[in-house]
Amino acid sequence: MSEPKKIALVISGGGAKGAFAVGVLKHLFLTYRETGWFDITGGTSTGALISPLAALMAAPDPISSQAFETLVYMYTHVTTSDILEKQSIFELIRRQDCLYESDPLNDLLHRQFRSEWFDWLQMSDAPYCYVVYTNYQTGQQVTVSPKDDAMTLQRFTKAMLASASVPVVMEATIIDEDVCYDGGVRDLLPFSKAINLGAKIIMPIFLDPEELSVTHSHFRRMDKILLRTLAIFVNETGNNDFEMANLINIGIQAKQEILSTFAHNQNALKKLLKIFNKEEFRALFGAEKHLIKIITGLRPNESLTEDSLTFDPAKMRMWMDWGEQKAKEIILENPFV
Fold first, then answer.
1. Which residue(s) pair with 144 in the sheet?
2. CA–CA separation, 79 and 309 (whole Å)
3. What are the DSSP calls for 238-276, one per residue?
4. How crowded is the C-beta side of 185, counted as CA atoms within 13 Å?
5. Where are the alpha helices (DSSP H) in the chain?
6. 87-146 tens-digit pLDDT
7. How many alpha carbons fall within 13 Å on the CB side of residue 161?
8. Lesser CB count within 10 Å: N end or C end of the chain?
9. Is 335 within 8 Å of 8 (Cβ atoms)?
10. Distance CA 304, CA 310 (A)
11. What is the DSSP letter of 48?
């Protein structure tokens, strides 16, 4: 029998624009869930809030239906005040490190993410779920999963909060006494973990169009300048992440073709495997990497918003519909069989 394909879902950052990703998942869940689901789910920022719930949609009922309904509710009913609390002028003078406090989002995560859900994600037959945040003390990205040794619900929800915390706009999340922020600072679309886990197919969901939209703003306010800076940064980082994943995919395919060509020559095959397994080549040719396909096109046709931190339920419902329609256009056959 052939080895089963391992399918990964990877979701980028994008605040309220996560509603588009929820629309994609809605189509997949209602159309294909009975035949299978993702083996790996990962995300950054708003993707880190969606990824665990997407993994839970693989669980037996009622957990899968509860997770799906919670995800849809969060991205069609939640408002900005449910996520962020604007600081008073006195707090801004006192703290000087952020414009908004994240207590509402922290409370929302603790209310919505149930302990029995976390327990299920720790089970061996649950999908491998991961989220990425950035440790500002070390400058490095941190990837955590419910399946990590000694991981707890409290620590994992902190990681989710940290991943969604946009620097300057939102307050830092403190983990092990270190200041931690948005995973998108280092890795907007966290492909590498899924590749290293042996994913054969990756379905990435971008929350922005391929080309950065033109704006007619005169940038006379600090918040407008900050939001545009973030948009430019996100566009560049996302494109770089995707190009790196494509490069790894090409490397893996080239390796397989070379090995197939010399399959009859055991002496040459041993030498080639020795080369491919060199430490300096593992990033491209490591034995754990099996990627054969990246499903492209799951992204908006146009920019959804210039302010991804304004949560407007009416707009998010529209973006969710767009994501559902895009999934219908791109995913023309069951990816799980």
1. 131
2. 10
3. HHHHHHHHHHHHHHHHHHHHHHHHTTT-HHHHHHHHHHH
4. 20
5. 18-32, 46-56, 63-77, 89-95, 103-112, 115-121, 153-163, 191-196, 222-261, 266-276, 282-285, 313-330
6. 655 555 455 677 788 899 999 999 999 999 999 999 999 999 999 999 999 999 999 999
7. 26
8. N
9. no
10. 12
11. H
Q: For residue 259, count CB atoms less than 10 angstroms from its CB and return exposed for 0-12, middle for 13-18, buried for 19 or more.
A: middle
Q: How many residues does the chain have?
A: 337
Rounded to 10 degrees, what is the CA torsion of 148, 154, 159, 162? -170
The neighbour count for residue 223, using CB atoms within 10 Å, is 12
Distance of alpha carbon 205 from the chain centroid: 8
The verdict on pTM exceeding 0.90 is no
Pair 192, 240: CB distance under 8 Å: no
Non-local (6+) Cβ contacts of 31 within 8 A are none
Identify any residues that bridge with 17 across adjacent strands, giving them in sequence order. none
Amino acid symbol at 74: M
Q: What tokens does 201 get?
A: 């197919």
Query: Using CA atoms, how far apart are residues 127 and 8, in angstroms rounded to an integer?
Result: 9
Q: In whole angstroms, what is the distance from residue 311 CA to residue 58 CA?
A: 27
**Cα-flanking dihedrals φ and ψ of residue 83, to 5°?**
-110, -45
* Tally of CA atoms within 13 A in the half-sphere of 177 that contains its CB: 0
Q: d(Cα 15, Cα 198) in Å, to the nearest integer?
A: 29
Distance CA 64, CA 75 (A): 17
Task: Check pLDDT > 50 for residue 1.
Answer: no
